[in-house]
Amino acid sequence: MPYELYYWPTIQGRGEFVRLALEEAAAEYVDVARTKNGMAAMTRMMESRQEVHPPFAPPFLKSGRLLIAQTANILLFLGARHRLAPADDAGRLWTHQLQLTIADWLVEIHDTHHPIASGLYYEDQKSESRRRAADFIKNRLPKYLGYFQRVMDANPRSDVYLVGARLTYADLSLFQTVAGLNFAFPRAMARIARRYPRVIALHDRVAERPRIASYLASERRIPFNQQGIFRHYPELDSSK
């Protein structure tokens, strides 16, 4: 049976990290909310009183009788099933730890354009967004990129992957984060990218993988836009 992925149909968001893993694994899946009546089906799943393990919010993945929510949790499951994570406990948990760090990073990226409240429009918090984005670019962006550069430097089995000698879902997620940052902060990223050559090379290498390249060129890949986590507001993108 194909996997059923439930996520918003018009944005990449956190669901994209799951899509990338499914595409790299050549796994059969249905992006439910993008099908006819799919949004209604997703809403029913979230509001069901019969579901023993109800999800709080998308993304969530249905695999047979299993219903799994939270991006990192879904990837932990898929990684073990599709050889996108090491088989040993230490490697599996290390990959999961890196994914959780990326999850923290995504919150900070989102908060550059919504620092006060997600329920407010960006236009209602523009001055606060400028301050938040400036601090993010100056302090937090180098901190995260530097961390993943160090992880790659310290990997004893490979200088091209985060974990071990082969691609994991953490590599796919780092690719997606760098791609999103290139969209949201092109000037800032162009200015500092040379400091993190292995991270940038990983992004480029993942984009060239046959299954990922095919996915990126297909209609299945939703373009970056102004409703997702990664949004481009020129006034927030410092080149200094």
Would you write up a description of this structure?
By secondary structure, this protein is of the alpha+beta class. The chain has two domains: 3-81, 3-Layer(aba) Sandwich (Glutaredoxin), CATH 3.40.30; 89-209, Glutathione S-transferase Yfyf (Class Pi), Chain A, domain 2 (Up-down Bundle), CATH 1.20.1050.10. Helices cover 52% and strands 6% of the residues. The protein is built from nine helices and four strands. The chain has helices spanning 15-24, 38-47, 71-81, 89-110, 126-154, 169-184, 186-192, 197-208, 210-216; strands spanning 3-6, 29-31, 60-63, 66-69. Strands 2-1-3-4 form a four-stranded mixed β-sheet, with helices on one face. Helix 3 packs antiparallel against helix 4 (89-110) and helix 6 packs across helix 7 (186-192). The longest helix is centred in the middle third of the chain and has 29 residues, at 126-154. The radius of gyration is 18 Å and the shape is globular. The protein starts with a strand and ends in a 24-residue tail after the last helix. The mean pLDDT is 96.
